[in-house]
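wait is this the right file?? whatever heres the structure
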């Protein structure tokens, strides 16, 4: 873990286990490190990366104050396999959000959370695989896909989730599921039925 934090602070790119799949991460506020992840994954630069934070207090560093619906979903599913798409903070560097929104998640995994807390800020939380390829559930699978392109792989065993996070856009009006993942759609729908702001999904 110490080596992982040191690598992040020095602008390196690492792979680490999360509650969903293995993540590929770097210090989110280091533009050169973020650029490396685009190159490693062979990802189009128009597609922004989601950010991982350790607690709600860090949310204000990357996003505007969430709506009541966003807060409701965050309280219900964080930490966990839900990525919320929120209006980005005005102070967010342009290399982290190509448009007006940013994807944010609090993961439910001790290794991942420790990395973020020790770094003291959000990290990139994209899946540790080549764009278009299957997500990696083990350190071995990360090594098979990415080889020596990254600086460190933290082997935390097989990821418990086995699937990527569910992405819900709550940036305006009614929530919209952009990607079904670890949290099934029906769980999101059932939760929203209990939301005072939104009577139905």
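ok assuming it is, sequence goes like this
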């Amino acid at each position: 873990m110490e080596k992982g934090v040191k690598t992040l602070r020095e602008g390196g790119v690492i792979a680490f286990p999360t509650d969903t799949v293995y993540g590929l991460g770097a210090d989110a506020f280091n533009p050169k490190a973020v650029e490396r992840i685009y190159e490693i994954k062979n990802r189009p630069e128009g597609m922004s990366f989601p950010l991982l934070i350790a607690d709600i207090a860090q949310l204000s560093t990357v996003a505007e104050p969430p709506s009541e619906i966003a807060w409701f979903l965050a309280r219900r599913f964080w930490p966990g396999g839900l990525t919320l798409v929120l209006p980005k903070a005005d102070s967010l560097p342009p290399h982290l959000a190509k448009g007006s929104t940013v994807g944010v998640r609090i993961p439910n995994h001790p290794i991942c959370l420790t990395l973020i807390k020790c770094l003291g800020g959000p990290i990139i939380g994209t899946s540790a695989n080549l764009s278009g390829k299957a997500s990696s559930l083990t350190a071995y699978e990360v090594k098979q896909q990415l080889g020596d392109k990254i600086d460190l792989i933290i082997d935390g065993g097989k990821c418990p989730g086995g699937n990527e996070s569910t992405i819900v856009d709550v940036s305006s009006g009614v929530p919209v599921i952009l990607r079904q993942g670890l949290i099934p759609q029906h769980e999101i729908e059932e939760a929203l039925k209990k939301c005072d702001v939104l009577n139905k999904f």
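The mean pLDDT is 94. so i think its the right one actually
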